[in-house]
Design brief:
The chain is an alpha/beta fold. It has 16 helices and eleven strands. It folds into two domains: about 70 residues, no CATH class; about 220 residues, HUPs (Rossmann fold). α2 packs antiparallel against α10, α5 crosses α16 and α6 packs across α9.
Length: about 325
């Protein structure tokens, strides 16, 4: 049997594959690798393959099969088209056999948490919006959740490692990555290797508040969706510091395809964002959670406020970017 190193998980035509089944296909039916879905990086006998969207990091381009330096195929799974609700439920089911769900109490994570039915974790400063909202959501959903309170000192201590790990060293990326860092730290300490998250929903369904004011919504969504690979690289690089990885059901190819088929004006309407997702969610979670408007991760967790305070304390009163550049230079010589 061909020995295949597997990071992540693989599905074929909607069925999760075991390591034995993956090895059998690699040896006897390599053409089927091009249809592999899931979140994975595989390597064997001089060959490497990585999932379509590049959710799992690895030393080859996302969505490619490479053998001995030569591109041999494109990883392009083609599951049947599904209604959005079916796509989301299928994507969560395929990922929920293990791991912990990151819960912030917004519609994205609450829907995932409810459908996955796994232990949850929420992080934030003691007085943060996200911890309050996560407690409320977990109580409404009847889910078990651990609430991890972080401190300004812990955030300051984590900044050098986070800045070193992330590809794009700028304030917003740093704030988001710091929040992910503490989620991954807790998960790793508890022995979890998979963190199921709601990442990607804002871009696919129109979740950012700036979408309410834009006159170019379709173009803005397309640009932000194109940036999702960079976000995955940022988040996975931080998760890897703790031996974990993020699993993202909203970036399942079924969900992405269903979301892209929805016109932009249906996603943001009547002063509401992520309308199609909320309509699906209210059939699975309380309407209060489905239509709750939540702050972005770096703000809701309280991390952004601390990051700004640290920049000022260190003499960077007007530029958080200069503070991050300083951290990078002092600790890593960049």
């Amino acid at each position: 049997m061909t020995s295949v190193h597997i990071a992540g998980w693989v599905e074929l035509d909607g069925k999760r594959l075991t390591p034995h089944e993956i090895g059998h296909i690699v040896k006897n039916d390599p053409g089927a690798i091009n249809r592999f879905g899931g979140e994975f990086f595989l390597s064997w006998n001089g060959c490497r393959a990585r999932d379509h969207f590049g959710v799992i990091q690895g030393d080859c381009t996302a969505g490619t099969l490479i053998c001995n330096g030569e591109i041999k195929g494109a990883i392009s799974p083609a599951p049947p088209d599904m209604p959005l609700e079916d796509a989301i439920i299928t994507a969560i089911r395929l990922r929920s056999d293990e791991g912990v769900t990151a819960l912030s109490g917004g519609v994205d994570s609450s829907l995932v948490a409810q459908c996955a039915g796994r232990e949850c974790v929420a992080v934030g400063l003691s007085d943060s919006h996200d911890l309050r909202q996560a407690r409320h959501a977990a109580a409404l959903l009847g889910l078990s959740c651990t609430y991890v309170t972080i401190t300004p000192d812990e955030i300051e201590a984590a900044i050098p490692a986070v800045v070193a790990a992330i590809p794009k060293k700028e304030p917003v990326s740093t704030g988001i990555a710091l929040t992910q860092y503490f989620i991954a730290r807790w998960a790793g300490e508890q022995g979890y290797r998979r963190i199921i998250t709601g990442q990607g929903a804002d871009e696919l369904f129109g979740g950012y508040s700036r979408y309410l004011q834009t006159a170019t919504l379709a173009e803005d969504l397309a640009r932000d969706i194109a940036g999702l690979k960079g976000q995955a690289a940022r988040d996975q690089s931080v998760a890897a510091l703790h031996g974990t990885c993020l699993s993202m059901p909203y970036l399942d190819i079924r969900v992405v395809r269903a979301a892209l088929a929805i016109p932009a004006e249906e996603k943001v309407q009547g002063g509401h964002r992520k309308v199609p997702l909320r309509k699906v969610a209210e059939r699975h979670i309380p309407r209060e959670l489905a239509w709750n408007e939540k702050k972005a991760m770096q703000y809701g967790s309280g991390v952004w406020k601390v990051l700004r305070q640290l920049a000022r304390k260190n003499g960077y009163k007007t530029s958080m970017q200069d503070y991050i550049d300083h951290i990078s230079r002092v600790h890593h010589g960049h």
